[in-house]
Amino acid sequence: MTSQQAPVETQTQDDRMTAPRREMFQVGESTDGASRDERRVSVAIDHVSAWYGAKRAVTDVSLEAYANSVTALIGPSGCGKSTLLRCINRMHEINVGARAEGSIRLEGADVYGADVDATRVRQRIGMVFQKPNPFPTMSIAENVAAGLRFMNIGSKSETQDRVEYALKASALWDEVKNDLNKPGMALSGGQQQRLCIARTIAVEPEVVLMDEPCSALDPVATLKIEDLMSELAKRYTIIIVTHNLQQAARVADYTGFMLMEESDGAGHLIEYSPTSDLFTQPKDKRTEDFITGRFG
Ligand SMILES: Nc1ncnc2c1ncn2[C@@H]1O[C@H](COP(=O)(O)OP(=O)(O)O)[C@@H](O)[C@H]1O
Ligand SMILES: [Mg+2]
To answer: Is 215 helix (H, G, I), strand (E, B) or coil?
Structure first.
């Protein structure tokens, strides 16, 4: 079976119906510069289900996330978004008794392959969490270099170069370049989150997963991170979980809507489409109900 492909973006069918909704969500311009035909699949999720012990959390999700695109997962709390995200870089299995089925491929190679090292997977597929989590005893520079040291990457001068590169790529360099030895914890919340993004990209991943990365931040810091996501998508595959529909509409090229189904009490992927289609002409009534605020 093949993964669910996001259909090629189509023209709006009914402007009377879709115009207000488009306005409501300010659907952004696609950051995906390549024509749709040139899309390269970066992460292929194929019939993935996940459990915590006997409790099923995700059922049979298939979708393809494209390189140099932002893919968003939306849906009510508890519908399995974080679990699915954590399956992608094998963090799910860190939970005692947790397991997953199905296949996840990065650039065509199975991340759950028998000879694949989970640590190497987590280098190639980095993760940024909800609450900024700089290492409390480390300076700004040490925080960014932490992953490099942990993974034994690079000489001292290479490390310095990578710290600078990562801080620039995270739009933090100008604010901290004279304070690299100050504690990471001394930064504001929004700066700390950009520091965590810098720490993630310092090890040169191919994919960056972000689980509600702005939910602890104020609106100004949130917009900065959103701008950064679009910028990072030029180099990386970005997959975000967000409870903020406006955010998905603003930054994501593709959006997947997940929902917990009564039949098995686990999250299913209801619809996966180019973001503007999902928000302006949802294919499923449940998607429409969710984005118009009827539940969730
Ligand atoms: N560590 C865990 N142990 C047991 N159940 C969990 C754990 N984490 C999440 N769950 C359950 O899995 C389901 C999906 O959770 P989650 O993936 O966190 O959803 P979301 O991110 O969409 O809010 C929920 O029913 C939640 O209670
Ligand atoms: Mg979550």
So the answer is: coil
